[in-house]
Specification:
The complex is a heterodimer of chains A (about 260) and B (about 270). Chain A has about 260 residues and is of the alpha/beta class. Chain A has a single domain (about 10-40, about 50-255), classed as P-loop containing nucleotide triphosphate hydrolases (Rossmann fold). In chain A, about 35% of the residues lie in helices and about 25% in strands. Chain A has helices at about 30-40, 80-85, 120-130, 135-150, 165-175, 195-210, 220-225, 245-255, and strands spanning about 10-25, 50-65, 70, 95-100, 105, 180-185, 210-215, 230-235, 235-245. Chain A has a 6-stranded mixed β-sheet with strand order 5-6-7-3-8-9, sandwiched between helices. Chain A has a 3-stranded antiparallel β-sheet with strand order 2-1-4. In chain A, helix 3 crosses helix 4, helix 3 crosses helix 5 and helix 4 packs across helix 5. The radius of gyration of chain A is 21 Å and the shape is globular. The two termini of chain A are about 30 Å apart. With about 270 residues, chain B is mostly helical. Chain B is built from 12 helices and no strands. Chain B has helices at about 1-25, 25-40, 50-70, 75-95, 105-110, 115-145, 155-180, 185-195, 210-215, 220-230, 235-260, 265-269. In chain B, helix 3 (about 50-70) crosses helix 6. The longest helix of chain B is centred in the middle third of the chain and has 29 residues, at about 115-145. Chain B is globular, with a radius of gyration of 20 Å. The chains are: A alpha/beta (about 260), B mainly alpha (about 270). The interface between A and B is medium-sized, with 32 and 26 residues.
Protein backbone atom coordinates (compact mmCIF):
# COMPACT_ATOMS: atom_id res chain seq x y z
CA UNK A 1 0.00 0.00 0.00
CA UNK A 2 1.05 3.57 -0.45
CA UNK A 3 2.21 4.63 2.94
CA UNK A 4 2.22 8.05 4.55
CA UNK A 5 5.19 7.38 6.77
CA UNK A 6 8.39 8.42 5.01
CA UNK A 7 10.51 6.40 7.43
CA UNK A 8 9.58 3.00 6.01
CA UNK A 9 9.30 3.99 2.37
CA UNK A 10 11.77 2.65 -0.15
CA UNK A 11 11.02 5.29 -2.76
CA UNK A 12 9.62 8.64 -1.83
CA UNK A 13 8.98 11.53 -4.21
CA UNK A 14 8.01 14.90 -2.84
CA UNK A 15 6.60 17.48 -5.28
CA UNK A 16 9.10 16.54 -7.96
CA UNK A 17 9.22 18.75 -11.03
CA UNK A 18 11.46 18.09 -13.99
CA UNK A 19 11.72 20.33 -17.01
CA UNK A 20 13.88 19.98 -20.09
CA UNK A 21 15.54 22.76 -21.94
CA UNK A 22 15.17 22.05 -25.64
CA UNK A 23 18.09 23.66 -27.38
CA UNK A 24 17.51 24.41 -31.00
CA UNK A 25 19.69 25.74 -33.74
CA UNK A 26 21.89 28.55 -32.50
CA UNK A 27 21.47 27.95 -28.79
CA UNK A 28 23.79 24.96 -29.19
CA UNK A 29 26.58 27.16 -30.48
CA UNK A 30 29.10 28.98 -28.30
CA UNK A 31 30.19 31.16 -31.23
CA UNK A 32 26.66 32.42 -31.79
CA UNK A 33 26.22 32.96 -28.08
CA UNK A 34 29.34 35.11 -27.91
CA UNK A 35 28.34 37.05 -31.03
CA UNK A 36 24.87 37.59 -29.63
CA UNK A 37 26.12 39.05 -26.37
CA UNK A 38 28.99 40.92 -28.02
CA UNK A 39 26.65 42.66 -30.43
CA UNK A 40 24.08 43.44 -27.71
CA UNK A 41 21.63 41.09 -29.37
CA UNK A 42 21.90 42.41 -32.93
CA UNK A 43 23.58 39.34 -34.39
CA UNK A 44 22.56 35.73 -33.88
CA UNK A 45 19.10 36.26 -32.56
CA UNK A 46 18.44 32.52 -32.30
CA UNK A 47 21.27 32.13 -29.77
CA UNK A 48 18.87 32.69 -26.89
CA UNK A 49 16.20 30.55 -28.48
CA UNK A 50 15.26 28.08 -25.81
CA UNK A 51 12.10 26.16 -25.13
CA UNK A 52 11.40 24.58 -21.78
CA UNK A 53 9.30 21.45 -21.64
CA UNK A 54 7.80 20.57 -18.32
CA UNK A 55 8.04 16.80 -18.24
CA UNK A 56 6.97 16.25 -14.64
CA UNK A 57 4.97 18.60 -12.47
CA UNK A 58 4.74 18.23 -8.71
CA UNK A 59 4.76 14.46 -8.67
CA UNK A 60 4.47 13.04 -5.17
CA UNK A 61 4.07 9.48 -3.98
CA UNK A 62 5.91 6.98 -1.90
CA UNK A 63 6.33 3.23 -2.10
CA UNK A 64 7.27 0.84 0.64
CA UNK A 65 8.71 -2.65 0.60
CA UNK A 66 6.74 -5.13 -1.49
CA UNK A 67 4.97 -2.52 -3.62
CA UNK A 68 4.85 -3.04 -7.35
CA UNK A 69 3.90 0.12 -9.17
CA UNK A 70 2.58 0.41 -12.72
CA UNK A 71 3.02 3.73 -14.49
CA UNK A 72 0.34 4.19 -17.11
CA UNK A 73 -0.54 7.02 -19.40
CA UNK A 74 -0.41 8.14 -23.01
CA UNK A 75 2.81 8.54 -24.98
CA UNK A 76 4.68 11.57 -23.72
CA UNK A 77 2.93 11.57 -20.36
CA UNK A 78 6.27 11.44 -18.58
CA UNK A 79 6.52 7.73 -17.71
CA UNK A 80 10.09 7.25 -18.89
CA UNK A 81 11.18 10.58 -17.43
CA UNK A 82 9.70 9.56 -14.08
CA UNK A 83 11.55 6.22 -14.19
CA UNK A 84 14.79 8.02 -14.98
CA UNK A 85 14.19 10.51 -12.18
CA UNK A 86 13.69 7.67 -9.70
CA UNK A 87 16.88 6.09 -11.04
CA UNK A 88 18.73 9.32 -10.22
CA UNK A 89 19.58 10.09 -13.84
CA UNK A 90 17.68 13.37 -13.93
CA UNK A 91 18.14 15.44 -10.82
CA UNK A 92 14.85 17.32 -10.33
CA UNK A 93 14.76 21.11 -10.48
CA UNK A 94 12.34 21.20 -7.57
CA UNK A 95 11.23 18.69 -5.01
CA UNK A 96 13.16 15.71 -3.76
CA UNK A 97 13.58 12.05 -4.60
CA UNK A 98 14.67 9.74 -1.79
CA UNK A 99 15.45 6.11 -2.55
CA UNK A 100 16.78 3.40 -0.30
CA UNK A 101 18.65 0.43 -1.67
CA UNK A 102 20.35 -0.73 -4.81
CA UNK A 103 18.59 0.32 -7.97
CA UNK A 104 18.52 -1.93 -11.00
CA UNK A 105 17.28 -0.04 -14.02
CA UNK A 106 16.21 -1.91 -17.15
CA UNK A 107 15.47 0.77 -19.70
CA UNK A 108 17.50 -0.32 -22.65
CA UNK A 109 18.43 -3.89 -23.44
CA UNK A 110 21.40 -2.94 -25.52
CA UNK A 111 23.11 -0.78 -22.90
CA UNK A 112 26.65 -1.87 -22.28
CA UNK A 113 26.30 -4.69 -24.78
CA UNK A 114 29.50 -5.06 -26.75
CA UNK A 115 28.44 -7.00 -29.81
CA UNK A 116 31.92 -8.42 -30.38
CA UNK A 117 32.29 -9.89 -26.90
CA UNK A 118 30.90 -13.25 -25.86
CA UNK A 119 27.73 -13.64 -23.80
CA UNK A 120 29.77 -14.38 -20.67
CA UNK A 121 31.92 -11.27 -21.10
CA UNK A 122 28.81 -9.20 -21.62
CA UNK A 123 27.27 -10.59 -18.45
CA UNK A 124 30.40 -9.54 -16.56
CA UNK A 125 30.39 -6.07 -18.13
CA UNK A 126 26.72 -5.49 -17.41
CA UNK A 127 27.04 -6.69 -13.85
CA UNK A 128 29.92 -4.24 -13.36
CA UNK A 129 27.68 -1.49 -14.73
CA UNK A 130 25.04 -2.39 -12.17
CA UNK A 131 27.59 -1.97 -9.42
CA UNK A 132 28.54 -5.56 -8.61
CA UNK A 133 32.10 -6.35 -7.63
CA UNK A 134 34.10 -8.81 -9.76
CA UNK A 135 33.92 -11.35 -6.91
CA UNK A 136 30.14 -11.16 -6.67
CA UNK A 137 29.86 -11.53 -10.42
CA UNK A 138 31.74 -14.83 -10.52
CA UNK A 139 29.51 -16.01 -7.68
CA UNK A 140 26.31 -15.15 -9.56
CA UNK A 141 27.55 -16.20 -12.98
CA UNK A 142 26.26 -19.81 -12.99
CA UNK A 143 22.83 -18.65 -11.85
CA UNK A 144 22.68 -15.96 -14.54
CA UNK A 145 23.86 -18.36 -17.24
CA UNK A 146 21.23 -20.86 -16.22
CA UNK A 147 18.42 -18.32 -16.22
CA UNK A 148 19.24 -17.09 -19.73
CA UNK A 149 18.90 -20.67 -21.10
CA UNK A 150 21.35 -19.61 -23.77
CA UNK A 151 23.76 -22.50 -23.06
CA UNK A 152 26.45 -22.73 -25.71
CA UNK A 153 25.40 -19.39 -27.20
CA UNK A 154 27.03 -17.73 -24.19
CA UNK A 155 30.44 -18.51 -25.66
CA UNK A 156 29.56 -16.83 -28.94
CA UNK A 157 29.73 -13.12 -29.69
CA UNK A 158 26.52 -11.29 -28.89
CA UNK A 159 26.47 -10.13 -32.51
CA UNK A 160 24.89 -13.49 -33.32
CA UNK A 161 22.03 -13.07 -30.82
CA UNK A 162 18.45 -12.12 -31.56
CA UNK A 163 17.00 -9.17 -29.65
CA UNK A 164 14.96 -11.59 -27.54
CA UNK A 165 18.15 -13.38 -26.52
CA UNK A 166 19.83 -10.11 -25.56
CA UNK A 167 16.74 -9.30 -23.54
CA UNK A 168 17.04 -12.58 -21.63
CA UNK A 169 20.67 -11.85 -20.90
CA UNK A 170 19.91 -8.32 -19.69
CA UNK A 171 17.01 -9.41 -17.54
CA UNK A 172 18.99 -12.23 -15.95
CA UNK A 173 21.80 -9.87 -14.94
CA UNK A 174 19.49 -7.11 -13.72
CA UNK A 175 17.63 -9.48 -11.43
CA UNK A 176 20.43 -11.81 -10.35
CA UNK A 177 21.27 -10.04 -7.10
CA UNK A 178 17.75 -9.29 -5.85
CA UNK A 179 17.78 -5.56 -6.41
CA UNK A 180 15.99 -3.55 -3.77
CA UNK A 181 14.49 -1.41 -6.50
CA UNK A 182 13.77 -2.67 -10.01
CA UNK A 183 12.80 -0.14 -12.66
CA UNK A 184 11.50 -1.41 -15.98
CA UNK A 185 10.45 0.28 -19.18
CA UNK A 186 8.07 -1.38 -21.59
CA UNK A 187 10.64 -3.20 -23.72
CA UNK A 188 10.29 -6.09 -21.31
CA UNK A 189 7.30 -7.13 -23.44
CA UNK A 190 9.63 -8.19 -26.22
CA UNK A 191 10.20 -11.63 -24.73
CA UNK A 192 8.42 -14.77 -25.86
CA UNK A 193 5.67 -16.39 -23.79
CA UNK A 194 8.00 -18.93 -22.19
CA UNK A 195 10.43 -16.24 -21.12
CA UNK A 196 7.66 -13.96 -19.87
CA UNK A 197 6.41 -16.73 -17.59
CA UNK A 198 9.87 -17.24 -16.12
CA UNK A 199 10.43 -13.50 -15.82
CA UNK A 200 7.19 -13.12 -13.93
CA UNK A 201 8.13 -15.92 -11.52
CA UNK A 202 11.50 -14.27 -10.95
CA UNK A 203 9.97 -10.85 -10.32
CA UNK A 204 7.51 -12.40 -7.87
CA UNK A 205 10.25 -14.22 -6.01
CA UNK A 206 12.21 -11.12 -5.21
CA UNK A 207 9.16 -8.99 -4.52
CA UNK A 208 8.55 -11.47 -1.73
CA UNK A 209 11.97 -10.58 -0.39
CA UNK A 210 10.76 -7.04 0.12
CA UNK A 211 11.73 -5.22 -3.01
CA UNK A 212 10.01 -2.53 -4.98
CA UNK A 213 9.30 -2.61 -8.67
CA UNK A 214 8.22 0.22 -10.95
CA UNK A 215 7.02 -0.74 -14.42
CA UNK A 216 6.07 1.67 -17.18
CA UNK A 217 3.91 0.02 -19.79
CA UNK A 218 1.03 0.33 -22.20
CA UNK A 219 0.16 -3.31 -21.70
CA UNK A 220 -2.66 -2.95 -19.18
CA UNK A 221 -3.33 -6.68 -18.58
CA UNK A 222 0.36 -7.16 -17.79
CA UNK A 223 0.28 -4.16 -15.44
CA UNK A 224 -2.66 -5.52 -13.52
CA UNK A 225 -1.06 -8.98 -13.28
CA UNK A 226 2.40 -7.84 -12.19
CA UNK A 227 1.60 -4.81 -10.09
CA UNK A 228 -0.32 -3.85 -7.00
CA UNK A 229 -0.30 -0.07 -7.30
CA UNK A 230 -0.99 2.19 -10.22
CA UNK A 231 -0.06 5.76 -11.07
CA UNK A 232 -1.77 7.39 -14.02
CA UNK A 233 0.33 10.16 -15.48
CA UNK A 234 -1.15 12.79 -17.73
CA UNK A 235 1.05 15.52 -19.21
CA UNK A 236 3.52 15.21 -16.39
CA UNK A 237 0.99 15.33 -13.58
CA UNK A 238 -0.26 12.50 -11.42
CA UNK A 239 -3.90 12.18 -12.39
CA UNK A 240 -4.72 9.19 -10.28
CA UNK A 241 -2.96 7.00 -7.77
CA UNK A 242 -4.23 3.91 -6.01
CA UNK A 243 -4.75 0.17 -6.40
CA UNK A 244 -3.76 -0.86 -9.90
CA UNK A 245 -7.13 -2.19 -11.07
CA UNK A 246 -8.95 0.94 -9.98
CA UNK A 247 -6.48 3.21 -11.75
CA UNK A 248 -6.58 1.11 -14.93
CA UNK A 249 -10.36 1.23 -14.89
CA UNK A 250 -10.41 5.01 -14.61
CA UNK A 251 -7.78 5.28 -17.32
CA UNK A 252 -9.61 3.04 -19.78
CA UNK A 253 -12.91 4.80 -19.10
CA UNK A 254 -11.27 8.13 -19.78
CA UNK A 255 -9.65 6.88 -22.99
CA UNK A 256 -12.96 5.37 -24.13
CA UNK A 257 -14.64 8.73 -23.58
CA UNK A 258 -12.26 10.19 -26.09
CA UNK A 259 -9.15 11.58 -24.54
CA UNK A 260 -7.88 12.41 -21.13
CA UNK A 261 -9.03 15.99 -20.87
CA UNK B 1 19.68 30.47 3.06
CA UNK B 2 17.98 27.85 0.99
CA UNK B 3 20.25 28.57 -1.95
CA UNK B 4 23.25 28.19 0.33
CA UNK B 5 22.12 24.80 1.55
CA UNK B 6 21.43 23.77 -2.00
CA UNK B 7 24.94 24.68 -3.18
CA UNK B 8 26.43 22.86 -0.19
CA UNK B 9 24.53 19.72 -1.15
CA UNK B 10 25.68 20.16 -4.76
CA UNK B 11 29.24 20.25 -3.51
CA UNK B 12 28.70 17.07 -1.49
CA UNK B 13 27.19 15.38 -4.53
CA UNK B 14 30.18 16.33 -6.64
CA UNK B 15 32.54 14.89 -4.02
CA UNK B 16 30.40 11.74 -3.81
CA UNK B 17 30.63 11.50 -7.59
CA UNK B 18 34.45 11.42 -7.46
CA UNK B 19 34.42 8.95 -4.57
CA UNK B 20 32.05 6.63 -6.45
CA UNK B 21 34.28 6.74 -9.53
CA UNK B 22 37.25 5.66 -7.42
CA UNK B 23 35.12 2.85 -6.02
CA UNK B 24 34.11 1.71 -9.51
CA UNK B 25 37.70 1.19 -10.69
CA UNK B 26 37.01 -2.29 -12.11
CA UNK B 27 34.27 -0.86 -14.32
CA UNK B 28 36.20 1.96 -15.96
CA UNK B 29 39.32 -0.14 -16.29
CA UNK B 30 37.25 -2.76 -18.13
CA UNK B 31 35.51 -0.18 -20.31
CA UNK B 32 38.80 1.55 -21.10
CA UNK B 33 40.41 -1.77 -22.03
CA UNK B 34 37.44 -2.62 -24.23
CA UNK B 35 37.98 0.66 -26.09
CA UNK B 36 41.54 -0.45 -26.88
CA UNK B 37 40.61 -4.09 -27.66
CA UNK B 38 37.98 -2.78 -30.03
CA UNK B 39 40.71 -1.11 -32.07
CA UNK B 40 42.82 -4.29 -32.03
CA UNK B 41 39.88 -6.35 -33.25
CA UNK B 42 39.30 -4.07 -36.18
CA UNK B 43 42.89 -4.37 -37.39
CA UNK B 44 45.72 -6.56 -36.19
CA UNK B 45 48.03 -3.64 -35.52
CA UNK B 46 45.26 -1.72 -33.79
CA UNK B 47 46.54 1.38 -32.01
CA UNK B 48 50.04 0.58 -33.28
CA UNK B 49 48.94 2.24 -36.52
CA UNK B 50 48.90 5.57 -34.76
CA UNK B 51 52.23 4.68 -33.15
CA UNK B 52 53.67 4.02 -36.60
CA UNK B 53 52.29 7.38 -37.64
CA UNK B 54 54.04 9.08 -34.72
CA UNK B 55 57.26 7.20 -35.49
CA UNK B 56 57.29 8.43 -39.08
CA UNK B 57 56.69 11.95 -37.87
CA UNK B 58 59.53 11.73 -35.34
CA UNK B 59 62.00 10.50 -37.98
CA UNK B 60 60.93 12.92 -40.69
CA UNK B 61 60.81 15.99 -38.45
CA UNK B 62 64.06 14.95 -36.75
CA UNK B 63 65.88 14.67 -40.08
CA UNK B 64 64.57 17.90 -41.59
CA UNK B 65 64.61 20.16 -38.55
CA UNK B 66 68.09 19.14 -37.44
CA UNK B 67 69.19 20.54 -40.82
CA UNK B 68 67.08 23.69 -40.52
CA UNK B 69 68.27 24.46 -37.00
CA UNK B 70 71.75 23.18 -37.75
CA UNK B 71 71.63 20.92 -34.71
CA UNK B 72 73.10 17.40 -34.38
CA UNK B 73 70.40 14.85 -35.08
CA UNK B 74 71.35 12.75 -32.06
CA UNK B 75 70.41 15.74 -29.93
CA UNK B 76 67.26 16.95 -31.69
CA UNK B 77 65.61 13.66 -32.62
CA UNK B 78 65.24 12.30 -29.04
CA UNK B 79 63.97 15.76 -28.05
CA UNK B 80 61.33 15.75 -30.79
CA UNK B 81 60.47 12.16 -29.97
CA UNK B 82 59.80 12.76 -26.26
CA UNK B 83 57.97 16.00 -27.01
CA UNK B 84 55.74 14.50 -29.70
CA UNK B 85 54.75 11.55 -27.54
CA UNK B 86 53.67 13.79 -24.66
CA UNK B 87 52.01 16.20 -27.09
CA UNK B 88 50.14 13.30 -28.69
CA UNK B 89 48.65 12.49 -25.30
CA UNK B 90 47.72 16.10 -24.54
CA UNK B 91 46.25 16.83 -27.97
CA UNK B 92 44.20 13.64 -28.13
CA UNK B 93 42.75 14.48 -24.70
CA UNK B 94 41.82 17.98 -25.85
CA UNK B 95 40.44 16.80 -29.19
CA UNK B 96 38.42 13.81 -28.01
CA UNK B 97 37.18 15.09 -24.63
CA UNK B 98 34.39 16.88 -26.50
CA UNK B 99 32.55 13.60 -26.93
CA UNK B 100 33.14 12.50 -23.33
CA UNK B 101 29.51 12.91 -22.29
CA UNK B 102 27.70 13.29 -25.61
CA UNK B 103 29.31 10.02 -26.78
CA UNK B 104 28.27 8.20 -23.60
CA UNK B 105 24.65 9.23 -23.94
CA UNK B 106 23.42 5.64 -23.93
CA UNK B 107 25.09 5.02 -20.57
CA UNK B 108 24.15 8.33 -18.97
CA UNK B 109 20.48 8.09 -19.92
CA UNK B 110 20.08 4.47 -18.86
CA UNK B 111 21.87 4.09 -15.58
CA UNK B 112 23.16 6.31 -12.84
CA UNK B 113 26.93 6.26 -12.94
CA UNK B 114 29.26 8.88 -11.51
CA UNK B 115 30.03 11.41 -14.24
CA UNK B 116 33.72 11.43 -13.38
CA UNK B 117 33.76 7.72 -14.23
CA UNK B 118 33.50 8.62 -17.91
CA UNK B 119 36.54 10.87 -17.56
CA UNK B 120 38.48 8.07 -15.83
CA UNK B 121 37.62 5.61 -18.59
CA UNK B 122 38.59 8.15 -21.23
CA UNK B 123 41.94 9.09 -19.69
CA UNK B 124 42.73 5.44 -18.92
CA UNK B 125 42.37 4.39 -22.54
CA UNK B 126 44.44 7.40 -23.63
CA UNK B 127 47.15 6.26 -21.20
CA UNK B 128 47.25 2.85 -22.84
CA UNK B 129 47.64 4.52 -26.22
CA UNK B 130 50.46 6.60 -24.76
CA UNK B 131 52.14 3.41 -23.57
CA UNK B 132 52.07 2.21 -27.19
CA UNK B 133 53.78 5.41 -28.33
CA UNK B 134 56.34 5.08 -25.56
CA UNK B 135 57.87 2.20 -27.53
CA UNK B 136 59.22 4.77 -30.00
CA UNK B 137 61.05 6.57 -27.20
CA UNK B 138 62.69 3.33 -26.07
CA UNK B 139 63.79 2.52 -29.61
CA UNK B 140 65.17 6.05 -30.06
CA UNK B 141 67.26 6.09 -26.85
CA UNK B 142 68.57 2.63 -27.61
CA UNK B 143 69.51 3.61 -31.17
CA UNK B 144 71.21 6.89 -30.20
CA UNK B 145 72.56 5.40 -26.96
CA UNK B 146 71.11 8.45 -25.26
CA UNK B 147 70.58 6.88 -21.83
CA UNK B 148 68.99 9.46 -19.56
CA UNK B 149 70.09 7.64 -16.39
CA UNK B 150 68.25 7.56 -13.07
CA UNK B 151 66.97 11.10 -13.66
CA UNK B 152 64.39 9.57 -16.00
CA UNK B 153 62.51 8.36 -12.93
CA UNK B 154 61.73 12.02 -12.17
CA UNK B 155 59.41 11.87 -15.17
CA UNK B 156 57.00 9.82 -13.05
CA UNK B 157 55.80 12.57 -10.66
CA UNK B 158 55.66 14.98 -13.59
CA UNK B 159 53.62 12.47 -15.51
CA UNK B 160 51.22 12.03 -12.57
CA UNK B 161 50.63 15.79 -12.56
CA UNK B 162 50.03 15.69 -16.30
CA UNK B 163 47.49 12.85 -15.87
CA UNK B 164 45.64 14.77 -13.16
CA UNK B 165 45.45 17.77 -15.48
CA UNK B 166 44.20 15.51 -18.27
CA UNK B 167 41.40 14.18 -16.04
CA UNK B 168 40.36 17.67 -14.98
CA UNK B 169 40.44 19.28 -18.40
CA UNK B 170 38.55 16.40 -19.99
CA UNK B 171 35.74 16.87 -17.44
CA UNK B 172 35.56 20.60 -18.19
CA UNK B 173 35.74 20.19 -21.96
CA UNK B 174 33.25 17.32 -21.81
CA UNK B 175 30.73 19.37 -19.87
CA UNK B 176 31.14 22.50 -21.96
CA UNK B 177 30.83 20.50 -25.20
CA UNK B 178 27.71 18.76 -23.97
CA UNK B 179 26.10 22.17 -23.74
CA UNK B 180 27.74 23.91 -26.70
CA UNK B 181 28.19 21.51 -29.56
CA UNK B 182 30.64 23.68 -31.50
CA UNK B 183 33.36 23.54 -28.85
CA UNK B 184 35.09 20.39 -30.21
CA UNK B 185 35.35 22.11 -33.60
CA UNK B 186 36.75 25.26 -32.02
CA UNK B 187 39.37 23.19 -30.19
CA UNK B 188 40.25 21.29 -33.37
CA UNK B 189 40.88 24.52 -35.25
CA UNK B 190 43.18 26.03 -32.65
CA UNK B 191 45.14 22.91 -31.66
CA UNK B 192 47.25 23.09 -34.84
CA UNK B 193 48.37 26.61 -33.96
CA UNK B 194 49.16 25.55 -30.42
CA UNK B 195 51.31 22.72 -31.76
CA UNK B 196 53.36 25.16 -33.81
CA UNK B 197 53.83 27.83 -31.14
CA UNK B 198 54.76 25.33 -28.41
CA UNK B 199 58.39 24.16 -28.25
CA UNK B 200 57.90 20.58 -29.43
CA UNK B 201 59.80 20.38 -32.70
CA UNK B 202 61.97 23.36 -31.79
CA UNK B 203 63.81 24.23 -28.60
CA UNK B 204 62.92 27.34 -26.56
CA UNK B 205 66.48 28.76 -26.71
CA UNK B 206 65.94 29.36 -30.46
CA UNK B 207 63.67 32.21 -29.40
CA UNK B 208 66.74 34.10 -28.17
CA UNK B 209 65.80 37.11 -26.05
CA UNK B 210 62.09 36.39 -26.62
CA UNK B 211 62.27 33.09 -24.74
CA UNK B 212 59.38 34.28 -22.54
CA UNK B 213 57.11 33.37 -25.48
CA UNK B 214 57.79 29.75 -24.59
CA UNK B 215 57.78 30.20 -20.84
CA UNK B 216 54.42 31.96 -20.91
CA UNK B 217 52.89 28.92 -22.61
CA UNK B 218 51.37 26.61 -19.98
CA UNK B 219 51.58 23.63 -22.35
CA UNK B 220 55.36 24.08 -22.58
CA UNK B 221 55.68 23.44 -18.85
CA UNK B 222 53.29 20.48 -18.89
CA UNK B 223 55.37 18.88 -21.65
CA UNK B 224 58.73 19.88 -20.23
CA UNK B 225 58.02 18.46 -16.77
CA UNK B 226 57.91 15.00 -18.39
CA UNK B 227 60.28 15.55 -21.30
CA UNK B 228 63.28 16.95 -19.42
CA UNK B 229 63.78 13.88 -17.19
CA UNK B 230 63.28 11.57 -20.18
CA UNK B 231 66.20 13.35 -21.84
CA UNK B 232 68.41 13.14 -18.76
CA UNK B 233 68.01 16.48 -17.01
CA UNK B 234 65.84 17.78 -14.20
CA UNK B 235 63.03 20.17 -15.11
CA UNK B 236 63.77 23.75 -14.08
CA UNK B 237 62.31 25.16 -10.87
CA UNK B 238 60.26 27.49 -13.03
CA UNK B 239 58.73 24.56 -14.89
CA UNK B 240 57.92 22.67 -11.70
CA UNK B 241 56.30 25.65 -9.99
CA UNK B 242 54.39 26.53 -13.19
CA UNK B 243 53.11 22.97 -13.46
CA UNK B 244 51.93 23.02 -9.85
CA UNK B 245 50.23 26.37 -10.39
CA UNK B 246 48.54 25.13 -13.57
CA UNK B 247 47.31 22.02 -11.74
CA UNK B 248 45.92 24.10 -8.87
CA UNK B 249 44.13 26.47 -11.25
CA UNK B 250 42.77 23.58 -13.26
CA UNK B 251 41.53 21.93 -10.06
CA UNK B 252 39.71 25.01 -8.82
CA UNK B 253 38.10 25.77 -12.20
CA UNK B 254 37.04 22.18 -12.82
CA UNK B 255 35.59 21.72 -9.35
CA UNK B 256 33.66 24.96 -9.69
CA UNK B 257 32.28 23.87 -13.08
CA UNK B 258 31.54 20.38 -11.88
CA UNK B 259 29.73 21.48 -8.71
CA UNK B 260 27.73 24.02 -10.66
CA UNK B 261 26.76 22.00 -13.75
CA UNK B 262 27.12 18.30 -12.91
CA UNK B 263 23.37 17.86 -12.39
CA UNK B 264 22.65 19.41 -15.78
CA UNK B 265 24.72 17.02 -17.89
CA UNK B 266 21.90 14.49 -18.27
CA UNK B 267 19.61 17.28 -19.52
CA UNK B 268 22.14 18.61 -22.00
CA UNK B 269 22.94 15.45 -23.90
Amino acid sequence: MISDGVSESVISLDRVSVSFPVYQGGSRSLKKRVLYHGSAGRIGRDASHKIIIEALREVSFSLSAGDRLALIGANGAGKTTLLRTIAGIYEPIEGSVVTRGRISPMFDISLGIDADLSGYDNIRLRALLLGLSPGEIEQYLPDIAQFTELDEYLDMPVRTYSSGMILRLGFAVATCFQPEILLMDEWILAGDAHFMGRAEARVRSFIERASVMVLASHNLPLCSRWCTMGVWLDQGRVKEVGPVDKVIKQYTTSVAQGGSR
Amino acid sequence: MLAKRKSASQFNRAVADFAAAVELRPLWIRLGWNDILYRYRRSTLGPLWSTANTAIMVIALGLVYSQIFNMPIRQLLPYICAGLIVWGFISSIMLDAGTLFSGSESYIKQIRLPYSLHACRFVFSKLILLAHDFLIYIVVIVYFEAWPGAVALCAIPGFLLLTINALLISLTIGMASARFRDIPRLIASFIQVVFLITPIIWTPDLLGPRVYLAYANPLFHLIEVVRAPLLGSLPSVQTVTSTLAITATNLVVTIWFFVRFRGRIAYWI
